[in-house]
Amino acid sequence: MRLSLAAANATGLVAGVLLDRLLGDPRRLHPVAGFGQAAAALERRTYAPSRAAGARHVAIALGVPVAAAAVAQFATRKHPVARAALTAVTTWAVLGGTSLRREAVTLADALAVGDVPAARATLPSLCGRDPSGLGPAELARATVESVAENTSDAVVAPLCWGAVAGLPGLVGYRAANTLDAMIGHRSARYERFGWAAARLDDVANLVPARLAAGLTVLVAGRGHRGPALRAWLRDGGKHPSPNAGQVEAAAAGALGLRLGGRNDYAGRVEVRPTLGDGAPPAGRDIYRAARLSAAIGTAALVATAGHALAAPARRAALSWLRTRRRTAS
User: Fold this and answer.
1) From start to end of the chain, where are the E strands?
2) Are strands 262-265 and 268-271 parallel, antiparallel or unpaired?
3) Is residue 329 part of a domain?
4) Short-list 283, 195, 292, CA closest to 247
5) Tally of structural domains, the chain
6) Domain assignment present for 326
7) Domain extent for 10
8) Does the record carry Thylakoid as a key word (predicted)?
9) In this structure, are residues 117 and 174 in contact, taking their beta carbons and an 8 Å threshold?
10) Is 60 exceeded by the pLDDT of residue 1?
11) Considering the domain boundaries, does residue 173 fall inside one?
12) What is the pTM for the complete model shown?
């Protein structure tokens, strides 16, 4: 039986997730790292302290890999097996769920044996906060919040865009998210130049972040779904990010924790609102957050692969509705 393109896309997403679960991030020649190096080299040519310059930078840095992915997708339109294989490898490259959980567990293990310096050394692989002055409680909070936010950014969102737009969606989302991480933060250099990257990332994550929050409620388990839903609906909009607060609030409710507080980003201090009603996270809660992240990833795969597989049926239904309307008129 010939594999359809819809089945090829769905199969590629599933295989890519399995590769990520088995292998984590590629250890050498990581495509995302290569993109970051290329974007940094481009920035040296395009930088100017203006929004227009930043928009041009994003257009070039994003447009080139998306165009290449579109060409690859077009070239495999008659070769579903090749499409599935290429989608699998691309999905593996853009996902980061397994490495996220591994780093979080490494930090939790360090806290479990009282090795605070080792935990501080691990934190930069999870988030951008300055770990030098953080104790066990703040290290645990930073890790739980990072796991919650990045489960959306590094798992749910790439799968969503892969299900909707195939290879260009996978590549485009990861490129946009990487650009945001590189230049989308507020600083003297990037206040204006990084504006386009930050806003693009916000738009790209609007739906995935809310799907991630909904899936958090779904997989929270008996007795935890109600608190997760309440925290999401009540606290999700308090966060300064239009997306991070959605998943962090839902995770806080699902885990029975209270998130938020003072965050130090190498001298830039932000005081985040309280999310959830429980106690502040401890080291042992990191393990629970990692298990919740894995469950959300599985649920996201089921939803997105199913969406990709059902694409022909949706198109047929829309075509039938249009035909009926033309006939009726």
Assistant:
1) 262-265, 268-271
2) antiparallel
3) no
4) 292
5) 1
6) no
7) 5-309
8) no
9) no
10) no
11) yes
12) 0.92
Express each pLDDT in 116-137 by its tens digit: 999 999 999 999 888 988 999 9
Specify burial of residue 117 (Cβ count, 10 A radius: 0-12, 13-18, 19+).
Answer: exposed
With residue 92 as reference, give the H or E element that holds it: helix 80-94
Residue 88 φ then ψ, to 5°: -60, -50
Who contacts 273 (Cβ-Cβ below 8 Å, separation ≥6)?
235, 238, 239, 245, 260
Q: For residue 193, give Cα distances in angstroms to 33, 56, 100, 150.
A: 21, 10, 29, 24
Look up tokens 């909070």; give the residue: 141
Nearest residue to 98 (alpha-carbon basis) of 158, 139, 142? 158
Instruction: Please check whether residue 68 is in contact with residue 86, taking contact to mean a CB–CB distance below 8 angstroms.
Output: no
As a whole number of angstroms, the distance between CA 316 and CA 104 comes to 44
In a domain, 91, yes or no: yes
Give yes or no for a contact between 205 and 153, defined as CB atoms under 8 angstroms apart: yes
CA distance 141 to 123: 11
In angstroms and rounded to an integer, the radius of gyration of the C-alpha atoms of the chain is 21
